[in-house]
Amino acid sequence: MALLMIMLIWNLRIKMKSFQFTVLLSILLQGAICAQEEFPKVIAQEGDGIYSLLRRHGVSPTKHYNKFVSLNAEDLGEDESLFMGRSYVLPDTLATKKVEEIDQGITYPIFGEDFKKVDAVSKRLDKTVYYLISGHGGPDPGAVEKYRGKLISEDEYAYDVTLRLARELVSHGAEVHLIVQDENDGIRDSRLLELDTDETVQSNTIPLSQLERLKQRSKAVNDLYLKNSGKYQRLLVTHVDSRSEGTNIDVFFYHHEKSKNGKKLAESIHRTFFRKYKKFQPNRLYNGTFMERSSLYMVKNTLPAMAYIEIGNIRNKKDQRRILDPDNRQALAKWISEGILLDYESSKTTISK
Fold first, then answer.
1. Residue 110 gets which letter from DSSP?
2. Which residues contact 307 (CB under 8 A, 6 or more apart)?
3. Where are the beta strands (DSSP E) in 105-231?
4. For the chain, which terminal residue's Cβ has fewer other Cβ atoms within 10 angstroms, N or C?
5. pLDDT mean across residues, the chain
6. What is the value of pTM for the model shown?
7. Distances 189 to 22, 77, 111, 186, 329 between C-alpha atoms, Å
8. Residue 352 has pLDDT above 70, yes or no
């Protein structure tokens, strides 16, 4: 009888503890939900865009831009612009970090430790294939300049913009192939990007000879293009221009003279930049162009319809401000991606060049 009483008391204690744990868990979950609903709010100041607003409050635009847009969709103007004096909800970066730790989702280590997790924004580019090539790399850094006593090179900035573009396209469901890769240089939110020479093409060393480098890249693209026959495919080549120091240039684009789809792609991105400049820099005329340039090796010797992009002159002080600022590099990538979305959504499903 004594043994039976002891067992009954023990079972009752276990049930009470289980009940207490359940109540405690419920309280914690309710607290977490309330905490997530109480996102911090900030006021947009004159001249604010999403990038400057997020950066001023210590939030990475590269990681949290899309989350900010989804939280504030009803309070954004044309082209996701902000209204001065209006309150905007900031993403809860701590909550986001905890969610990422629990749910890893799809990760892409090539984007770097801080940016490898890519949230799905849409499926607008589902069943599309994009090949991205950043200019120079390996033994060829492109133009090299000094900035505040340190060397900066064309290839590092072209690569960073290309990574950011790849991340944008992936977030919309595209299949993306980075032809030039650097395993230890992900997206970098800093002004000075250290120069190195360890970039590869499909894990192969990049040749010293310029012609061999171009052949290596065009072959990599063309081989993949043939493997993906029947799919919607496009190629984007990104360069930083290197004209004389006094030449300030806007972003401009080349395409093959006989490629209707290439022309349409370049024109769509160009149109997006024109619209963005008109919206965000109304006092500055956008002078970027898109034109035929079939003499360029990568334009002439690759199979997919393509756009060749020059994002600025690394020797020019004004262009340097655009290229060195990580928020500007992110904006460049986002605007290019919006032009790509515009092109795809207005295209017939054809893969002919």
1. G
2. 234, 235, 236, 237, 253, 254, 255, 262, 265, 266, 269, 290
3. 128-134, 144-147, 150-153, 175-178, 180-181, 200-201, 204-205
4. N
5. 82
6. 0.77
7. 43, 27, 12, 10, 9
8. no
Exposed, middle or buried by CB within 10 Å (0-12, 13-18, 19+), for 34? exposed
The single-letter code of the amino acid at 326 is P
Least Cα distance to 307 among 228, 242, 237 occurs for 237
Distance CA 19, CA 12 (A): 11
- Whether residue 204 is predicted with pLDDT greater than 90 in this model: the reply is yes
- Look at the block and give the residue holding tokens 């911090």: 40
- Give residue 238's pLDDT band: very low, low, confident or very high (50, 70, 90): very high
- The Cα 257–Cα 22 span in angstroms is 69
CB 53 within 8 A of CB 88: yes
Return the bridge partners of 201, or none: 180, 204
What span, in angstroms and rounded, lies between the C-alpha atoms of 248 and 269? 20
217: Cα separation from own chain's centroid: 22
The total of other beta-carbon atoms located within 10 Å of residue 265's CB is 27
Residue (of 247, 292, 273) closest to 342 by Cα position: 273
**Distance between CA atoms of residues 279 and 277, nearest Å:** 5
Token couple for 57 = 């409050």
By C-alpha distance, which of 101, 88, 98 is closest to 36? Answer: 98
Distance separating alpha carbons of residues 239 and 336, to the nearest angstrom: 13
CA–CA distance, 245 with 262 (Å, rounded to integer) = 30
Contact criterion met (CB below 8 Å) for 126 and 173: yes
From the list 325, 339, 159, 309, the residue with the least C-alpha distance to 241 is 309
